[in-house]
Write a structure and sequence with these properties.
482 residues, alpha+beta, D-Maltodextrin-Binding Protein, domain 2, 6-stranded mixed sheet
């Protein structure tokens, strides 16, 4: 019994010692920080990581994303200086990708092959594979905002960026507070006159003179009748209505009839069937009735009209900066002979102010809806990069337009740019697209307008009835807005 009691005592003592040792190991405090770290005169660096005996974590790999970027155009299309757009974009994107590892940009030019339509994008949207970024004119991009397919681009701009944009230009890119597009550039429409044709015919004295280069509708008709010579395959002017493309060729004429309001932004109604507008279109139809324009306007489009200008078969056209740009390209490529031309205002109704220059729709960035937050952030970063003043200016000059950002360093001695800009400052500007203020479905309205113009360029057209029909149809389109 004594042996058993002794053994039990030993076991109890051993258990107690083991328990005490375990508690001591658990309760041992961590070493106190050193004097240097804790001393108030030497505070720790705010960005320094705490000391660790563990191995450093592996470097985080950059997020890998592919951004699909489509811009309006076609393979082989060139900038104003002759540089291929594909080459320019490749250079810019290469710069971006070098400083943004993990980002790949899949670029393509789309739209031009479909006669200036959004067919390529529409097809991709229907298939569920739209591009991530789409760069095109505002009215075409707005089509996708109307169906709520675009992202809010506010996060792509800094406060400094926002301050650099003209408030009116930015207002046209918003639906409420939601910024569905960011503008890169804007253009202008004026008249371009083949001065060589007028010089050869001995009628240069009939053209407008500087510094204003303005004329009335009566003065225009006198010059138009003098230069028109179908027997020699020379026409005064040309119109086209075979597509919606560049419908401003017709619309800008309304600027010379200031009482004609195509659209009333207050009531959100189309009013182009007013008596003032009927007067304007009746005057325009007189050009048709007298045979002073290239035949077949109802079926002509921009692609079939341009050759008349380049081959010097038409003397006066609207959209001066466009015809200036394609003329320079043709001369550079040695596909046409050089000839002299000048820029003038669209004619104004006698007694009315000098016609303001038409400001064309800006080219804008739009972003289709995304489901991956990381990819959306990468897209915002790319848009932020592209809208910088120097890059946006290159885009603007490439299209023969002007940058929208007020901080863009932009100066030109080219009269195709300088003179219209001076005119815009002097006589104001006019919106030949009527897109600002239109609540939705502008592309549907443009299609209705193209069909109206096709009927307009016919014999014995009933101007009032045609405009009444358009207004009824267009207002029905606006009323159906969601």
């Amino acid at each position: 019994m004594k042996k058993i009691a002794f053994l039990l005592t030993l076991l109890i003592i051993a258990s107690t010692l083991l328990a005490a040792c375990g508690q001591q190991a658990t309760a041992t405090p961590a070493p106190a920080p050193t004097e240097v770290v804790s001393a108030p005169t030497v505070p720790p660096a705010p960005t320094a990581a705490p000391a660790s005996t563990e191995a450093p974590a592996p470097t985080k790999e950059p997020v890998k994303v592919t951004i699909t970027y489509w811009a309006f155009g076609s393979e082989g299309s060139a900038m104003a200086d002759g540089t291929l757009w594909t080459d320019w974009y490749a250079k810019i994107f290469n710069q971006y990708q070098q400083s943004h590892p993990g980002v790949t940009i899949d670029f393509a030019l789309k739209g031009y092959d479909a006669s200036g339509s959004t067919l390529a994008v529409d097809t991709a949207v229907a298939a569920g594979t739209p591009p991530d970024i789409y760069f095109d004119t505002k009215f075409r991009v707005k089509k996708y905002q109307d169906t709520r397919l675009l992202e809010d681009l506010t996060p792509a701009l800094t406060p400094a960026d926002l301050a650099a944009y003209d408030s009116a230009a930015m207002a046209g890119s918003k639906s409420g507070s939601m910024m569905w597009s960011i503008p890169a550039d804007g253009g202008y429409w004026n008249m371009i006159v083949n001065k060589s044709l007028f010089d050869a015919a001995g009628h240069s004295d009939l053209l407008p003179k500087g510094p204003d280069y303005s004329w009335t509708t009566e003065e225009f008709m006198k010059a138009c009748e003098a230069i028109n010579d179908p027997a020699k395959n020379v026409y005064c002017t040309a119109f086209f209505a075979g597509s919606t493309s560049m419908d401003s060729a017709t619309n800008e004429w309304l600027a010379g009839f200031p009482d004609c309001k195509f659209f009333d932004t207050t009531t959100a109604k189309y009013t182009v069937n007013s008596s003032a507008c009927v007067e304007a279109f009746t005057f325009m139809h007189t050009i048709y009735e007298k045979g002073l324009m290239v035949p077949g306007a109802a079926g002509l489009i921009d692609d079939t009209t341009d050759p008349y200008w380049l081959s010097q078969q038409v003397a006066i056209l609207g959209q001066g900066n466009w015809y200036d740009s394609i003329t320079k390209k043709g001369v550079t490529a040695a596909t046409i002979k050089a000839f002299d031309y000048i820029f003038v205002q669209f004619p104004n109704k006698p007694g009315s102010p000098v016609t303001p220059v038409g400001m064309s729709n800006p080219d804008v960035w739009g972003v289709f809806k995304q489901t991956d937050p990381a990819k959306l952030q990468a897209i915002y970063d790319l848009v932020q990069f592209m809208q910088q003043p120097d890059i946006a200016t290159q885009i603007a000059v490439g299209w023969g337009k002007i940058p929208v950002r007020t901080d863009a360093t932009f100066k030109s001695d080219d009269p195709s740019v300088a003179e219209p800009l001076a005119a815009a400052r002097k006589f104001g500007s006019y919106d030949p697209y009527f897109v600002n203020g239109v609540p939705c479905n502008y592309n549907d309205v443009r299609q209705a307008w193209a069909e109206t113009r096709q009927a307009f360029w016919q014999d014995k057209a009933d101007v009032q009835a045609l405009l009444d029909g358009f207004v009824e149809r267009a207002n029905g389109i606006v009323t159906s807005c969601p």
